[in-house]
Write a structure and sequence with these properties.
The chain has 262 residues and is of the alpha+beta class. It has a single domain (4-255), classed as Coproporphyrinogen III oxidase, aerobic (oxygen-dependent coproporphyrinogen oxidase, 3-Layer(aba) Sandwich). Helix content is 44%, strand content 29%. The longest helix has 22 residues, at 4-25.
Amino acid sequence: MIDKNSIATFLNDVSKNFDNFCSLYNPSGKVDTQSWNTPMGRLDVTTSSGKVFEKAGMIYCDLEIETPPVLAEETGQKESKAKILVQEINFYPVSPLIPRGYIELRANITDKTILAGGTDIFPYFPEAEEDVSFFAEGMKELCTRHGKDYAKMRKTRAEFFISKYRKGKVGSHAGIYSFNLEDKDFDFFKDMAETFFKSYADIVERGKMKPFTEGDRDLKLKIQGLWAQWILLEDEGTKYGLDKGIPPEALLGAILPPNATF
């Protein structure tokens, strides 16, 4: 079984990638880091704001919780108490012509270790077909390298990120998600993080110099308002974390957009 230290070391490397990404694209921006000690464990949140990203947020959680029933059923974990390591990263660009980037990585450790998570991009305009195709191709190649079924993992991603109220998809659905990865999938898990940063960097480079209008930005704020509504009303992970006592200023401060129009 993969031990907690191995997973924590990997997630620490992902944190360094996040820091380097922010240093590259928000070199003179503002960086804020806060930590919370909760009854369930420790949370660390880092946010960056600057020229390319109006907000880049990362939350890292090292918690002990009751295994959610739906997860226990999905994974076959028997013990009620679980050690949970969670890392979620959201990049909200200044330019509406750069999609928002997202990756979530988690480990549930009981009598066995279950890895879960995924990644996607969230375009502001339907015309962002080039970015969506590029990201999808990167995910396909990732899955091929590790013998994974891209279509199946993409379907999991698509079915979870749907608004039941607005009857529309959330994100591009070019990305992937899995609720149940095993020890043998750890290399795939690590490669998913590397592939996300490489693919998203290429997308950011293509879009960062493209001119945009105030009308483009107004549309971006409206779409960010729709995302915020989905996160607050429909995202099961967010609701579960808040119900279990994660401070709203920690969780929502890391994942919500910095500005939105409702």
